[in-house]
Amino acid sequence: MKKNISKGFTLIEVLLVIAILAILAAIVIIAINPAKQLGEAQDAQRRNDVRAILDAVHQYSIDNSGAYPADITTYGTDCINDAVDICQYGAGCTGGVSLDELAENGLYLTEMPNDPSGATDTITGYKIMINAGDRIEVCAPETQGEEPIVVAR
């Protein structure tokens, strides 16, 4: 009598392994959450950009006896709704604030920062204004987080 010895896996065993791998893959994808990670990275870039613009305006003010760049004339109380868009370097945007003197010759900014997802050919995606306390506010209205990024000095 010959015994039939089968080598290999049964269909049930293969399906069970595939199901376990699918569950583990789903757990890893949920834990990593690439969309959230990308959003957080973009918001970090926005925070750095807003601070860089504000630092450049502040340094310009120090170097020019307290005067702000000429185009910053908008006063308001809410940076997201009252502020004016910052124009791209060298772009003639209508109704926006040109901060070209900050990026000329790399004196205050080596280049005009751009929002990772809100910039266009004419605007940077950031806004600027003077608040009620005569302080400059720069903001990033289009964030991935719940709150817009607003920095004042």
From TrEMBL:
Compartments, record wording: Membrane
Keyword Ribonucleoprotein listed: no
Keyword terms of this UniProt record: Membrane, Methylation, Transmembrane, Transmembrane helix
GO biological process: protein secretion by the type II secretion system
Main location: membrane
Coiled coil spans: none
Any one GO cellular component localisation term in the record: type II protein secretion system complex
The keyword Transmembrane is assigned to this record: yes
Pfam family, any one: N_methyl
PROSITE patterns linked to this entry: PROKAR_NTER_METHYL
Transmembrane segments: 12-32
Bilayer topology: Single-pass membrane protein
Name assigned to this protein: Type II secretion system protein GspG C-terminal domain-containing protein
Species in which this protein is naturally found: Candidatus Kaiserbacteria bacterium RIFCSPLOWO2_12_FULL_45_26
